[in-house]
Structure formats: structure tokens, C-alpha cells
Amino acid sequence: GPVVALIVAAGKGERAGGAVAKQFARLDSRAVLAHSVAAFRRHPAIHQIVIVIGEGQEAEARAAVGDHHFVMGGATRRESVFNGLAAIASASYVLIHDAARPLLPAAVIDRLLAALDENAGAIPALPVADTLARAGDVLGDTVPRDGLMRVQTPQAFRFADIVAAHRDWPADRDATDDAQILRAGGYPVAIVEGDPALEKITHPADFAAAEARLSARTS
Ligand code: CTP
Ligand code: MG
């Protein structure tokens, strides 16, 4: 079956602020959302792109990526993914991606798809470089960082398995990504090397960092 890219772009981008939600804000020559759409479009293994947006975001989404059939998201990321999965008629694999991670190297897609030959799921991740510590009123215990990873998207899954895992996940429980949902279904998830470019745009200053990466890449 086809390989589908599912991009969740239904958030409000509250921490990033700005006049429009961050996924529709401009980053260099196009909207944040348009960057990862372009990356998936030019990757030969991707057959279809499903984009999930929030209520009232149609005009901004169309301005960002042109005419497209948009799926309506939910109140949480998990619900938005669920609605996106429900809109896919048939797929062998699905790559679930945050619109807020605009710079998506083709090599990451390649590594994820290669890992799916032997795993139900695969995620890109990078090791933690900073010292980690618990915060209290004052500094708490340092947390050993050995074996801790920063998990990115896209996350790649066998379609039938991630759909089943999402269906079984308790509706009242939050999940920040889909790999934890697949794991809860009893499937092992492979880790492939992530990429610093995949850093998520969360706060206002992240736009400048993404722009700097982009100009370093194209110059
Ligand atoms: N997302 C979504 N539906 C939601 C919430 C988030 O599709 N109900 C998407 C966002 O659009 C983003 C990705 O999930 O591409 C990661 O979420 P996050 O970085 O938290 O984005 P926002 O929720 O938009 O930002 P904030 O939490 O600051 O409001
Ligand atoms: Mg959020």
C-alpha cells in the first residue's frame, strides 16, 4: 500500500505568540507548514500528504500550501493525529510529523523507512547534550543523561499497528508523541539518528534559529 505523510498543524502556537499560529507564520520564503510539505513532496517514497488543521484555520492553511483537502484536528495533538489517521483510506506506512518542525532532511525519511523493514515503528532522536537536573525552589538532583534521547518527528509506523494502538489508548490520557502510543500497544520502536535541523519551533526565538539553519543550508 501507499506511504502516507500525516502532518499535524492544528495547534494554536500559544508559546510562540505572533499574529498567526506558528505553523502558518513565514519562515524565509514560505510558511512554516509549507517547508515540511515540500520536503515530503520531493521525497520519492511518499505517495500522499494528509494535513490536519484546526477549526477556523482554513484560510491560513490555504495561503500556506495552496488548495488541499484539510482534515479537522482536535483539542490535543493526540486527537489531531487520531483524526488524521481516520482520514487515510489505505496505507502500508504512515509518517506522522509536527508542522512545527519545518526543516526535514530527506535522509531522516530514508532512515525511518529503512527501519520499518523490521520494526512496527521508528523515531528520529538525538542524545541529550546538556546537564539535566530537577528543579525545585533551588536546584534539585542532577539526572544522569546517559541513555536519554531527545525525540523528534517524523515518526514512522506500520499503518495498521499505529491505528490499533491509537484506538486502544485511553481517551482521557495525554500523549506528547505517537511512539509512546505504539509502545503502549506492546510494539518495539526503533531509534534512528535524528537531525538538529528538526528542532521544533516552540518559542519566538526559535524562528531566528530555524532561519539561520535554512540560510546555512542554501548558501
Ligand atoms: N498540534 C495539533 N493539534 C493540537 C495541538 C498541537 O495538530 N490540538 C500540532 C501543532 O500544530 C504542532 C505539533 O502538534 O505542529 C506539536 O505541538 P506544539 O509544538 O505544542 O504546538 P502548539 O500546540 O500549536 O503550540 P503551544 O503548545 O505553544 O500552543
Ligand atoms: Mg501544544
TrEMBL record:
Catalytic reaction equation(s): 2-C-methyl-D-erythritol 4-phosphate + CTP + H(+) = 4-CDP-2-C-methyl-D-erythritol + diphosphate; 4-CDP-2-C-methyl-D-erythritol 2-phosphate = 2-C-methyl-D-erythritol 2,4-cyclic diphosphate + CMP
Record carries keyword Transferase: yes
Region 2-C-methyl-D-erythritol 4-phosphate cytidylyltransferase, annotated ranges: 1-219
Site (Positions MEP for the nucleophilic attack): R145, K200
Cofactor or coenzyme needed: a divalent metal cation
Keyword Nucleus in record: no
Keywords: Isoprene biosynthesis, Lyase, Metal-binding, Multifunctional enzyme, Nucleotidyltransferase, Transferase
Site (Transition state stabilizer): R15, K22
Pathway involvement of the protein, from the record: Isoprenoid biosynthesis; isopentenyl diphosphate biosynthesis via DXP pathway; isopentenyl diphosphate from 1-deoxy-D-xylulose 5-phosphate: step 2/6; Isoprenoid biosynthesis; isopentenyl diphosphate biosynthesis via DXP pathway; isopentenyl diphosphate from 1-deoxy-D-xylulose 5-phosphate: step 4/6
EC numbers on record: 2.7.7.60, 4.6.1.12
MF annotations from Gene Ontology: 2-C-methyl-D-erythritol 2,4-cyclodiphosphate synthase activity; 2-C-methyl-D-erythritol 4-phosphate cytidylyltransferase activity
Top-rank taxon: Bacteria
Function: Bifunctional enzyme that catalyzes the formation of 4-diphosphocytidyl-2-C-methyl-D-erythritol from CTP and 2-C-methyl-D-erythritol 4-phosphate (MEP) (IspD), and catalyzes the conversion of 4-diphosphocytidyl-2-C-methyl-D-erythritol 2-phosphate (CDP-ME2P) to 2-C-methyl-D-erythritol 2,4-cyclodiphosphate (ME-CPP) with a corresponding release of cytidine 5-monophosphate (CMP) (IspF).
Family from the record: In the C-terminal section; belongs to the IspF family. Belongs to the IspF family.
The protein's name in its UniProt record: Bifunctional enzyme IspD/IspF
Organism from which the protein derives: Sphingomonas colocasiae
Gene: ispDF
Whole-protein coverage range: 9 to 227 of 387
